[in-house]
Automatic annotation (TrEMBL):
Coiled-coil region(s): none
SUPFAM superfamilies hit by this protein: Tryptophan synthase beta subunit-like PLP-dependent enzymes (SSF53686)
Pfam families: PALP (PF00291)
Cofactor names: pyridoxal 5'-phosphate
Entry protein name: Cysteine synthase A
Source taxonomy: Bacteria, Bacillati, Actinomycetota, Actinomycetes, Pseudonocardiales
Length: 310
């Protein structure tokens, strides 16, 4: 039967998220701050875009064939997104993550049927050595099972998913003066920036927590902003891919997360609040008459077990 308006697959529900204008948390005299609400994706994260792009890229090249296991290490959202995509497509999935990341994300991976390995953290903090230990677990799965490693930090297929995000911003907001985004794999900032720059002149600003200022100071450190600052400059953050880097205060971002949900109705996590705080700072520098865009990377529903909204 034909059902007009009905999607043939849940995978086609990825994307098409709204952009909203912030009204109350932006100081007077600053530029307009617009936020792309990526919590509207099926698993509540923009990583759905990346997960689908990586899996379908591997399928096109013949690297991923029916029944082959997929594996990745992740701070949570990528694992949830891969678990969703692999469940729909029928691939077995092994995910390596850590107790440094929200239990909601870990439970989501298991709910979609992923085999999950949890690597202990240093007191719940995100540290560079944590990623080294997770990567070692992935290498064991690859060797044992012949699994396909999506390798999100090096996989250029991810950019295909994020260029679609950038095109949506152009279609929804038109020409903008600046775009801000926190750096994890660097794929989102790189993919979106390429589209925005093709549409006009735009300042691209990379954001990171001030406690791990790799881009701004060349040093790293522990932090609790999930999905960001792995302790090194990621390969997908191409040379010249951004114009400026800003280190953002994590406690101030956490306070803003509560203001965003209570004053703006934007329910998102710590990295999203870091994005908005960075966008506000850039907006204050640019001043009235300009427009800054950023992304609410995921839904606040992923952070209810922690202290963010307590």
């Amino acid at each position: 039967m034909n059902f007009p308006g009905v999607l043939p697959s849940p995978l086609q529900a990825i994307g098409g998220t709204p952009v909203v204008r912030l009204r109350r948390v932006v100081p007077a005299g600053a530029a307009e701050v617009l936020v792309k609400i990526e919590g509207g994706n099926p698993t509540g994260s923009y990583k759905d875009r990346m997960a689908l792009a990586m899996i379908e890229g591997a399928e096109r090249r013949g690297e991923l064939t029916p029944g082959r296991r997929v594996v990745e290490f992740t701070g949570g959202s990528t694992g949830s997104s891969l678990a969703f995509v692999c469940a729909v497509k029928g691939y077995p999935l092994s995910v390596v993550s850590s107790d440094a990341f929200s239990p909601e994300k870990l439970r989501t991976m298991r709910a979609f049927g992923a085999d999950l390995t949890v690597v202990p953290s240093d007191g719940g903090r995100v540290t560079p050595d944590l990623f080294d230990r997770m990567r070692a677990e992935v290498e064991r799965v690859v060797e044992r099972d012949g699994a396909f490693w999506t390798d999100q930090f090096n996989n250029t297929d991810a950019l295909d998913g994020y260029t679609a995000l950038g095109q949506e911003i152009v279609d929804q907001a038109g020409a903008v003066d600046a775009f801000c985004g926190a750096v994890g794999t660097g794929g989102m900032l790189t993919g979106v920036a390429a589209v925005l720059r093709a549409a006009g002149e735009v300042r691209v600003v990379a954001l990171e927590p001030a406690t791990s200022p790799v881009l701004t100071k060349g040093t790293n450190g522990p932090h609790t902003v999930e999905g960001t600052a792995t302790g090194a400059v990621p390969p997908l953050l191409r040379s010249g891919g951004y114009d400026q880097a800003l280190a953002i205060d994590e406690p101030e971002a956490r306070e803003l997360a509560l203001r965003l949900v209570r004053e703006e109705g934007v329910f998102a996590g710590t990295s999203s609040a870091l994005n908005v705080l960075g966008a506000i700072q850039v907006g204050q520098e640019l001043g009235a008459g300009h427009t800054v865009v950023t992304v609410a990377a995921d839904t606040g529903l992923k952070y209810l077990a922690g202290s963010l909204f307590a």
